[in-house]
Amino acid sequence: MTNAVCFEKYAYYLQYEKKASDNTLVSYLRDIRQLTEYIESHTDETLETATGDELAEYTGWMKSQGKSIPTIARSIASIKNFYKYLLSQGIVAENPAMGLVAEKAQQKLPQILTGEEVDLLLQQPECTDLKGYRDRAMLELLYATGIRVSELINLDVTDVNLPAGVIRCKSHDKERVIPLYPAAIRALSEYIEFIRPQMIAVPDEKSLFVNVSGERMSRQGFWKIIKTYQAKAKIDKDITPHTLRHSFAAHLLENGADLRSIQEMLGHADISSTQVYSQLVKKQLKDVYNKAHPRAQ
To answer: Are 32 and 82 in contact (CB under 8 A)?
Structure first.
């Protein structure tokens, strides 16, 4: 069977039998088309007769061409799916892609701010107008709780319990209660009592944080706020809303909090997502040691 026939049969299967999404269809067929081009130009084999060695050589060739680890991993998944189909149709007697193993990408540790950098960032909003008070409350709340920016902008005023010093955060049909430190309580109290009533467009507005139009703050709006204060503070790091979340978790861990408690506050479903902060803290300690110890140079 020719390469073209194998390809067309697989395309028909994906589109009409498996009913793959447009994105899946485009991605899988692109990967198999690129494999076909390699086999035709670098070997004497066809898609039907290619061996495991040839497929492994192809993934090695992709790496030599500068393809990223995630791109190669996706291609391997496409190739395995393709040969699984050929095997089910009796076009090949065995699956040559069975031995392909995707290289794991090295986990990139998140960037965090030092305690001094956090203090500097939180000092930037000037409480001389409505926006300054609002921005200070938002930044204090974000660092106090480690919530995601999507969770921050989706908070309603009823989610804040100032007498108890906590907020209620809802995400993915789950709810968690997170405590606030005193400075965050003060900033929120001033904002909710004196500032927010002047900013909301309608009296029954539910949103905790609103924009200059008096409506719920957007992700893009808060992103601009973060970037403005990063520039103002002259912090030489790429600060995003998630940077404060990472800093919250790392600083808690540095100061003795246990991983399970941090996991609960962050809303991680799996403890492995939280364990990355242990690696981050250990790396920081090692960096400090290597920089400061007289015999580590």
So the answer is: yes
> Looking at residue 135, which CATH number applies to its domain?
1.10.443.10
Burial code of 249-277, b = ≥16 C-beta within 10 A, e = fewer?
bbbbbeeeeebeebbebbbbeeeeebebb
CB 224 within 8 A of CB 212: no
Phi, psi of 2 (to 5 degrees): -70, 160
Q: Does one domain contain both 120 and 74?
A: no
Give the Cβ contact number of residue 287 at 10 Å: 10
pLDDT along the chain (297 residues), means of 10: 91 91 90 95 92 93 90 93 94 92 72 93 96 98 94 96 95 87 97 97 97 95 94 92 91 90 88 80 66 62
Answer yes or no: do 48 and 160 share one domain: no
- Rg of the chain's alpha carbons, rounded to an integer? 27
Total tally of structural domains belonging to the chain? 2
User: Number of helices and strands (H, E) in the chain?
Assistant: 13, 3
On whether both 167 and 80 belong to a single domain, the answer is no
For 157, 223, 249, 277, the CA distances from 86, given in Å and listed in that order, are: 57, 48, 48, 44
What's the predicted TM-score (pTM) here? Answer: 0.63
**Encoded tokens for 235:** 């912090």
Q: Which domain holds residue 56?
A: 3-88
Query: How far does CA 100 lie from the centroid of its chain?
Result: 27
